Amino acid sequence: MATKTTRIANLDHIVAWDDAEQRHVYLDGGDLVFRGNEVVHVGPGYAGPVDAPLDGKGFMALPGLVNVHSHPFSEPANKGLTEEYGSDKLGQSSLYEYLTVFGLAPEDAGPAMQVAMSELLKSGVTTLTDLSIAREGWVDDLARTGIRAVVCPMMRQAVWFTKNGHTVDYAWDEKAGQKAFEASMKVIDEAMRHPSGRIGAMAGPAQIDTCREGFFREALQEARRRGIQMQTHACQAIVEFHEIVRRHGKTPIEWLDSIGVLGPDLVIGHGIFLNDHPQIHYPHGNDFERLRDSGAAVAHCPTVFARRAMVMNSIGRYMDAGITVGIGTDTFPHNMIDEIRLACYVARVFTGNYKMGMTRHAFEAATIGGAKILRRPDLGRLAPGCKADFSLVDMSHPYMQPSHEPVRSLIYSASERAIRHVYVDGIQVVKDSKVLTIDVEAATAGLIEGQRKRLETVSERDWAGRDADGLSPPVYATKERLPQSRPVS
After folding, report:
1. What is the DSSP string of 215-268?
2. Which residues on neighbouring strands pair with residue 59, listed in sequence order?
3. Cβ atoms 262, 290 nearer than 8 A
4. Nearest-angstrom CA–CA distance, 37 and 194
5. Cβ(302)–Cβ(332) under 8 Å?
6. CB-based contact 75:331 (threshold 8 Å)
7. Taking the CB of residue 79, how many other CB atoms lie within 10 A of it?
8. How many domains does the chain have?
């Protein structure tokens, strides 16, 4: 059967890729033409045959956003619980006292993942890196959503816990770690041969403080053998920074470098707490320069850290120095446009310098930066030869008007509300802002039930025996009735 050629004609704007200048540019009044799953023409003057002509008037074509770090299996169920609470005596992080207690049961991961996928697709994400725990059916579940995905099955040799709310301990189990390693490699191989052609893989030693040196080296060896990258959480918490210094006499960046894994094959999930970060103030190192010179990349997820008064220092500083940065949605909601906007705002506020969080920094991190991290030059841009992964933004949406600068209007005003249609691999997955590949209502119902079941047993997992409201008090108390009001005279 012949491959269909689709032409979206007379678009108001196309955020197109100028290969000669290696940057995005606006093309106004042009056509976007794709054959099957590949872009064949961007701009005016297409004279070839067309099987499916579409009118692009009133729309802007935007390259598909590339999300390099996300936890869709668990984060949707933290809604209403972790927006503004962390551990006061553990660096304000929510990692050690909250996420270990609230995390979903594995059997409820499916509905949570589907809800997250629907949010991602509606916000223009066409490629996702999914850091989840290996489970049966995971790869097929992702493929059914229509998204382009990179699975990064997390594996570790230890779990962290607190017995008192002010110290973190680690329970080590090398046998369980080896079992997780084998399960992860099995999922990686399954993903890489998936018939959809839309699923890739990454090796994922989960955290720098829960994996030993040999585990990291073996993971990197297996990643290189398969021609893929490795991602780990590092420099994500003040507690973690000082734990690595306590164990090794080195900062997290120095330790990764010393064991031979800090390099172009490594993606660092979060990369915030370098030795010169103001919340660390550890002047005895050169983490920033070491990271810059290594060729390692950073996955930046601003929302989850902004909730705990933490921020990278800063996206502009990293990118201007040549460090490859991508954007991720580490928490709920899985809204990539909101992450792009917040990445700009927090960098400007934190540094007191608006140039350290320009729109181009964050938008390029979410497109070409993510594509570079995934080694996919055919993603994150609209140009002939690239995959037909893109969104159509409704330029008539009130929040897009006036549209003097359309990308700014989208990021700072309209957000996902103006994204009407989304295509992945040449196939439409969002139409008129409705996800076509997911039963969102059913998935949401499953997520609600999963959270309800988990919250019933919170006190069994909390070191102090608190229930959900004890750990995360609601904004307002609930009362059955109010005092009688006085009659008006």
Report:
1. HHHHHHHHHHHHT--EEEEES--HHHHHHHHHHHSS-HHHHHHHTT--STTEEE
2. 394
3. yes
4. 17
5. no
6. yes
7. 15
8. 1
Per-residue pLDDT of the chain (489 residues; tens, 9 = 90+): 569 999 999 999 999 999 999 999 999 999 999 999 999 999 998 989 999 999 999 999 999 999 999 999 999 999 999 999 999 999 999 999 999 999 888 888 899 999 999 999 999 999 999 999 999 899 999 999 999 999 999 999 999 999 999 999 999 999 999 999 999 999 999 999 999 999 999 999 999 999 999 999 999 999 999 999 999 999 999 999 999 999 999 999 999 999 999 999 999 999 999 999 999 999 999 999 999 999 999 999 999 999 999 999 999 999 999 999 999 999 999 999 999 999 999 999 999 999 999 999 999 999 999 999 999 999 999 999 999 999 999 999 999 999 999 999 999 999 999 999 999 999 999 999 999 999 999 999 999 999 999 999 999 999 999 999 999 999 999 998 888 777 766
Asked whether residue 483 is assigned to any structural domain, the reply reads no
Domain assignment present for residue 265? The answer is yes
d(CA 404, CA 400): 9
CATH number at residue 342: 3.20.20.140
Q: Take residue 32 and report the two structure tokens written for it.
A: 């976007």
d(CA 471, CA 97): 9
Does any domain span residue 286? Answer: yes
Q: Quickly count: other Cβ atoms within 10 Å of residue 190's Cβ.
A: 17
Instruction: Give the phi and the psi of residue 59 in degrees, each rounded to 5.
Output: -130, 155
Range of the domain at 298: 64-385
Residue 28 domain-assigned?
no
Cβ atoms 121, 169 nearer than 8 A: no
* Paired tokens of 329: 């949605």
Q: What is the pTM of this model?
A: 0.96
Round to whole Å and give the CA distance between 193 and 330: 27
Which backbone phi and psi does 402 adopt, to 5 degrees? -70, 150
